[in-house]
Amino acid sequence: MGWMVTFSDLITLLLTFFVLLISMSSMDVKALQQAAGIFFSGGSGPGGFAAQGGVQDLGRFIESLENVPANLLLERQEEIKDKLFDFENTEYENLMDLVGRDIEIRKDERGLVFQLAESILFDEGETQIHYDFLPILSRLALVLRSARYQISIEGHSDDSLLEGESDAYAWELSLERAIAVMDYFTVQEGLRPDRFRVGGYGPSRPLGPNDTPEHRARNRRIEIVLYRDQFR
Q1: Are the CB atoms for 202 and 157 separated by under 8 Å?
Q2: Which domain holds residue 200?
């Protein structure tokens, strides 16, 4: 009979383990739903969102993403970007392909990070923003205007000949790109300059090795950081 007690304990432990797994999964989904400010009305859509739901307040939506675990934020990129980049003009629908492929929203110790591939904004080795893709920056300006955070615009280059013909040039290039993005937000979109700072990191903070054209393209990027704390 002693083995039955041991077996019963084992079954109880397994049941507790699975209950915990289910609870954690439910908490993740609930956290995202609450953070997005999305209300259900019986319909269904991507990720279970109701068709009649939506972001009630863009600023509240952005701020509440602080409560979403970083791993869940990465897992639910598609739904979150669909809400943030909701282009009303059908002419811009093709830009959603770029948003899906070349923009990543993540969290780190600084705060909420919008990571934009360089190809959305600039040609390799250049600092002039692509005119055709300005609606993406315009939508981001709406996001930034709605939120209360201080904002850091940070440029990153790679170590290729066009981008890094010298260490000084690579750093200067990344800084000029960050300044160009900030100028768009402050001059064209009218955001307050005192909310911003800019930085150029050259090739010093790559996301991966600079060993292939694809990897170098990933390392060329602009990061728009919504700082959770005040600048120090």
Answers
A1: yes
A2: 56-227
Q: pTM here?
A: 0.75
Q: Are 163 and 173 in contact (CB under 8 A)?
A: yes
For residue 37, give Cα distances in angstroms to 56, 85, 179, 191, 198. Answer: 6, 16, 33, 25, 31
C-alpha span between 195 and 128 (Å, rounded):
23
The tally of domains found in the chain comes to 1
Q: What is the pLDDT of residues 47-68, one digit of tens each?
A: 333 333 333 468 888 888 888 8
Q: Rounded CA gap, 2 and 152, in Å? A: 64
Is residue 48 domain-resident? no
44: left (phi over 0), alpha (psi -120 to 50) or beta: beta
Alpha carbon 187 to chain centroid, angstroms: 23
